[in-house]
Amino acid sequence: MKMNLLPNQKIARKSECICQGAVNRRSLTLFLIIVISYSRYVNLNIRSAATDDMPDIKSILSQYILETELVDDNIDQFVVAETGDRIVGCVCLDSNMSLVELRSIAVLPGWKNKGIGRRLFETLMQRAKGMTDRIYVRTTARGFFEKMGFEALDGSQKAVLWQDCADCDKLDVCMQVPMVLELR
After folding, report:
1. Is 1 within a domain?
2. Is residue 65 in some structural domain?
3. Which residues face 179 on adjacent strands?
4. Shared domain check, 134 and 147
């Protein structure tokens, strides 16, 4: 009969086997990977960004060739994900324009696909409640935002919604997709 164990029960069971010497090298390696991966999630903290976080935020954004010039002026609109004393992700909810825009969402490459982007997004959605009926984004990561509930807009909407897009000489070849999330 197969027992259904919770993840922490499986770890405890595996550690009992290790203590008793009833584990091969492959099982031990798998066990260590599980423990390390599990501990990453336990120690993840999502919080408002502080002035001291600006160099880390800029470093993360620059890895994806995202705009870093506005970080200094908008630090109070940023949220960061940290583990221990290391910032591993960031996002900004920019409400300085006539619309509310999700900007600068990025997670360090070694920390991608661990749910950090989703947690950052969910934190911003809590902040956005009551601020607006819709949130906009310009992105090359269309799939991620579709999973979050955003819908793609026609490309011609970029110049209508964002003045910097209207003024850009590369608008006709821009790879960013304008998207919107209706909150109500």
Report:
1. no
2. yes
3. 137, 152
4. yes
d(CA 152, CA 155): 9
pLDDT tens sequence across 168-183: 888 888 888 889 999 8
Q: pLDDT confidence of 95, banded at 50, 70, 90?
A: confident
The predicted pLDDT at position 174 comes to 81
Residue 110, class by beta-carbon neighbours within 10 Å (0-12 exposed, 13-18 middle, 19+ buried)? exposed
Q: Verify that 24 and 55 share a domain, yes or no.
A: no
pLDDT at 2 over 80: no
70 shares its domain with 123: yes
- What's the CA gap between 146 and 65, in Å, rounded? 22
* CA–CA dist 136, 156 (Å, integer): 14
The number of domains in the chain is: 2
Residue carrying structure tokens 């110049």: 159
Tell me which of 46 and 170 has the higher pLDDT: 46
102 by DSSP, 3-state: which? strand
Question: Any residues with CB less than 8 A from the CB of 110 and at least 6 apart, and which?
Answer: none
| Whether 174 and 97 share a structural domain | yes
Residue 2 falls inside a structural domain: no
Domain extent, residue 18, equals 7-42
Instruction: Copy the structure tokens of residue 129.
Output: 């409640």
- Position with higher pLDDT, 86 vs 42: 86
Same domain, 110 and 24: no
Identify the pLDDT of residue 40.
47
pTM of the model: 0.72
